[in-house]
Amino acid sequence: MKSIADSFARRARGARVKRFRTLLCAGLLGAVLLASVALPAALAPHEAARTGYVQHRDAMQPDADEQAVAFLDDEDYVLNGFSSHLPLVLIDTDDKPIPVHQIFDQEKGYMTPIPGVEPFVSCELSIYDSGGRNHLTDEATLRTEAKIKRRGNSSHSYRKAQYKLNLLTEDGAENHLSLLGMEAEDEWILNGNMLDKSLLRNYMAFTVASGLLPYTPDLRYCEVLLRDGDRLRYEGVYLLIEKIKQGPGRVEISDEPPRGGEHSYLLRRDRYDPENTMLRTYATEKRLSAGYLGLLYPKKDKLDEATLRYAEEDVSALERILYADDINVFLTYPDYINVDSFVDYCVLNEFFGNYDAGWNSTYFYKDLGGKLCAGPVWDYDGILDNYIPEPMEPEITAFAAAPWFDRLIRDKAFVERVLARYEELRRGPLSPHSTEALLHDAARYLGPAQQRDWQRWQDIYTGDAYALKDAIVTAATTPAQEPRRQRRQTDSYEQELLKLRYLLNAHGAAIPKALPQMKDLDAASISAADDYKKGSLLVLLFLLAFASAVWIARRHGSA
């Protein structure tokens, strides 16, 4: 009888062990499956942005012994023998002026066309870009017909003008050409940076952004000359920049016909512009957000009513969620936006103190079947205490007050993602070493071209027309000294570089302390990041259960 009882006991123990092993395998398989879903979603890197040629690093460097202004006369015309290590852009309008064609309408609150003034002027565009020193006596590396006009809002009437170029064939058709090694297109921007006497702000921000956000416009330094009769007038250092638009090499969202009413689109938040398609969305109609959203793609001349209605309804659906009082509704926003792109956009603009971003010159895009993304970046002339309406306080964060972003920071998980991403980038492209090297090397690369530009525009850079009378806290000369108040104005290029260097370091160090205090955060907020924490905890519980079951199985097996 005892042997029969022992036999049943062994069978029972074997059955229990078998059940345990079955449960263990199921638990382990569940843990693996859960980890395969949860971990990639949380740990996947941000979408790779376009990187490649970096002009100040990869292009020809200036001659150390060059006499920068030796070939400019007292009237800012170039003399025989003029050359530059930068590409040269020559614009010949056949002596026709490029007119101011807009004026700010105080009553309407936006720029309006000046009656009877044609914005575009026909011209011939010649580019000298040999890869070495560029001389006007050389054969142009590119020559094309074009149309040129002034561009910008507040910058529209600046003496150092900004321009939009439309390249044309001889018969007047669009002429898609590669300029200075950038992707071929027919529309280009010549940015004059008149308010940025460092000549570095746009270049630095775009260079950093190109490694973070897809579709960051490519740009190149050049020196611009305008033909005036039989002489060439020196206009200064410019940035030739790719225009933000839908298309290959630009914002590469689909151009397919609408699919079930859905369409890809490109938006810009900015001042009201009667010449563009302005959207009537939920937040705009309810006056919940500042500024206006314009639809840049599809273009106005190719836009049908159904696609316009889809874009307005799609954006309004997001805004109803962002401005919802119900926290459970609000926390569905990750279903509608690419959170990583909004995080990177927030980090970039906060780091550079871009107080105008989010309000103006702010772009968003959405591809078919995708989520709304923040970007591409644009207009960084006003960063690092160069935004005239408001001085930069290095110890304060300000970007999150911008429309939409002021709602996203209600979610503590979004703020935590911004802070975590900042800490990650602070060990790379936003580190003190990296930003100092970028500032130093880009300024050194400009070299004699910067000196020529300053000779041309010094009355603006140092005169009353440029003076910024507000004060900022500047660095103390020793740790024991209290910070002192000084004017924002700098009187030399070297002073401006010192100002940039201080602000990059001071604000960069302050962000981790200031960012969590942007707003009282809702401790009950739940987001994708919190969901991942829950998932990770579940994986841990599975693994603990597995280890416990192994121990129990061994105990039973040895019993």
Compact overview of the structure:
With 559 residues, the protein is of the alpha+beta class. Among the domains are: 60-242, no CATH class; 267-430 and 516-521, no CATH class. It is built from twelve helices and 18 strands.
Amino- and carboxy-terminal Cα gap: 20 Å
Biggest β-sheet description: 7 strands, mixed, barrel
What is the residue-mean pLDDT, rounded to a whole number? 84
Uncertain residue segments = 1-9, 22-45, 467-487, 519-543
Which band does the percent of strand residues land in? 15-25%
Class from helix and strand fractions: alpha+beta
Rg, please?
Answer: 29 Å
Report the total helices. 12
Strand order of the largest sheet: 2-5-7-8-9-11-10
- Outline, from the CA principal axes? globular
Q: In total, how many beta strands?
A: 18
Can you offer a commentary on this structure?
This protein has about 550 residues and is an alpha+beta fold. Among the domains are: about 60-240, no CATH class; about 265-430 and about 515-520, no CATH class. The chain has twelve helices and 18 strands. The chain has helices at about 1-45, 55-60, 200-210, 280-285, 305-320, 325-330, 340-350, 405-410, 410-425, 430-460, 495-515, 530-559; strands spanning about 85, 90, 100-105, 110-115, 120-130, 135, 140-150, 165-170, 185-190, 220-230, 230-240, 265-270, 275-280, 290-295, 360-365, 375, 470-475, 485. A seven-stranded mixed beta barrel has the order 2-5-7-8-9-11-10. Strands 13-14-12-15-16 form a five-stranded antiparallel sheet. A two-stranded antiparallel sheet has the order 1-6. α7 packs across α9. The longest helix is centred in the first third of the chain and has 42 residues, at about 1-45. Residues about 1-10, about 20-45, about 465-485 and about 520-545 have low confidence and may be disordered.
